[in-house]
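Sample log: Glycosyl hydrolase family 28.
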Amino acid sequence: MITLYECRNILVEGVQLRNSAMWNVHPVLCSNVTIRDIFVHSRGGMVDGCDPEASQYVHITGCRFDCGDDGIAIKAGRDIDGRRVGVASENIVIENCSFEGRWGALTVGSEMSGGVRNVFFQDCTVKKGSSYKPFHVLYIKTNKRRGGTVENIHARRIKATDVDREAIMVTLNYSLTGPGYGPIVNPKVQNITADGFTVNGVKKTAVTLDGLAESHIRNVAISNSTFTGVTTAKPSIKNADGTTFTNVTINGKKV
């Protein structure tokens, strides 16, 4: 609905966007972007609330996302073309927002081939809306054709309820039979923190890390967090190194 291409010093403030056919606010190759106090209502698929792509110094604050797809999805180009352009999304702060839609409240990927780094997701709420339950609170997704690096993703002080899949989901096996073009260039995903999560009601697992044998997820730290009403209490950790849980309980039991 709104695409900003190769722009600088952007303010999108106080608008209401309803029933777009695809992504709602999409800054591409932009810098110094502020998105403040907007409301997005969308239904269906491919109708993300906000998709910063290959953009730097982005501040998203005070927004409400009631979306049929991701609330915020950070992207940086896809496969060969994303690596050719080679511009990362970086230095992004998301705070004081509410999420009532499907899929991820904050998603990174799956189009992340130019790289995503230095993302701060804080002081936000995630809950069931009028139409959807959220699938994930934090969702990082990529696959072996994407290449690129996702690193330094930091989430803190997040409150969530009624999560329909995994609260924290990191997968390097996203849609391997679907999206993807070109040679295999394994992505790198590392340095992810989640601190101060309070999540009540998770249909699957609190934390799932799903790496590749050829490319392990590295250095995920979960701390000072409480997950209750979780169907499968044991976290699912596969092909991940350096994972730590500090002062974390799931269904009342320390991890």
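Observation: The chain has one helix and 23 strands.
Observation: The first strand starts at residue 2 and ends at 5.
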